[in-house]
Amino acid sequence: MFIRALAFIAALLLAGSPQADARTFVDAGGRTVEVPGRIGKVFVAGPPASVLVYALAPEKLAGWVREPGEKAKKYLLPEARDLPTYGWLTGRGGTANVEAVLAAKPDLIIDVGTVNETYISLADRVQEQTGIPYVLIGGRFADTPETLRQAGALLGESARGEELARYAEKRLADIQSLLADIPEGERPRVYYGRGPKGLETGLSGSINMEILEMAGATNVAAAAGKGGLTEVSLEQVLAWKPDVILASDAGFAEAVRSDPSWSGVPAVQAGRVYKAPDVPFGWFDSPPGINRLIGLAWLRSVLYPDAGTTDLRAEVREFFKLFYHVDLKEADLDALLANTGSRN
User: Fold this and answer.
1) Reported confidence tier of residue 307, pLDDT bands at 50, 70, 90
2) Which domains does the chain have, with CATH numbers?
3) Which pTM does this prediction carry?
């Protein structure tokens, strides 16, 4: 009788545990992963995943890949600002290890972005070593609505995922509607310079440049071939003659406006050098995640200032409330858009 009672209690506990209602999930790598029915804590493998989980369910985020800076923390929920920092599991500069994953005690590991054999192999290896389900979710910018829906369903936040997905669909449709009235020959040729010298950029096909393509502009660095991020020379940029220069670094944006070496570039001559906003996460890339949705609104304002009307401040306020869970004051908007080239 005692043994039967223990068995009955064990069955009840199992029925109430996440494993009891486990489900299978086919991820973007074609892997069939058994995930808990209820997910309480998520370990993120890279920066795009951290933004995605924070937007969908901040209370489920185990920690950050990299610690948010003081400026960024102002625009994050208080309970999320000082979460542990575990480092990368993937990508350049990967620093997290299996011990860090186990210490976090997550129910699930998520990676978002490029999916290829390298990432599939890593996911299989970490899942085998830790016993924790590891899911890959595609992160192409054009697929942002599907990314949000898929991740929302995975985390048990389907309604939230649907809400954010509809927002994304509307913003992607808006830019396509705008571009329908602008002939390709009238769209700007753009150089995006990363880093303090501005000589790192993305080639054709780079995930870091997807937003530029979505905005209808031409990436002048595509002339250097297909690939990811790469170093280029000033001579190459001069030869490409971009109409607009976008900078990830404020120092570079300021320097290029007055440096005689750059004076022959049409973008400099026309005063069309803009610093991309980057708080609390990059608006153009860094990371190349769902955070780029608000960057699309900013790009529209600087690339096509005379095409239609858009209230960028209103869009920023709506996005930050919906995705980052914060209410912006007028002073916040001033700070976010300062020196970015926006007319709003």
Assistant:
1) confident
2) 15-170 (3.40.50.1980), 185-337 (3.40.50.1980)
3) 0.91
d(CA 47, CA 62): 13
Closest by alpha carbon to 222, among 249, 196, 194, 190?
190
- Helix count (H) and strand count (E) of the chain? 15, 11
Q: Which two tokens stand for residue 105?
A: 């005690």
> Under a CB-based contact definition with an 8 Å cutoff, are residues 108 and 39 in contact?
yes
Position 341 scores a pLDDT of 80
Structure tokens at 109: 């590991």
Residue 13: partners with Cβ closer than 8 Å, 6 or more residues away: none
d(CA 30, CA 45) in angstroms, rounded, equals 18
pLDDT over 90 for what percent of the chain? Answer: 86
pLDDT at 12 over 80: no
**Chain length of the chain:** 344
Helix %, strand %, coil % of the chain (to 5)? 50, 15, 35
3: pLDDT strictly greater than 80: no
Handedness of CA 216, 222, 225, 230 (dihedral sign): negative
Strand positions, DSSP E, the chain: 23-26, 32-35, 42-44, 108-113, 134-138, 189-193, 200-202, 218-219, 229-231, 244-247, 273-275
277 neighbors 320 (Cβ within 8 angstroms): no
Query: For the stretch 276-288, what's the b/e string if a residue is b when 16 or more beta carbons lie within 10 angstroms of its beta carbon?
Result: bbbbbbbbbbbbb
Q: Output the average pLDDT for the chain.
A: 92
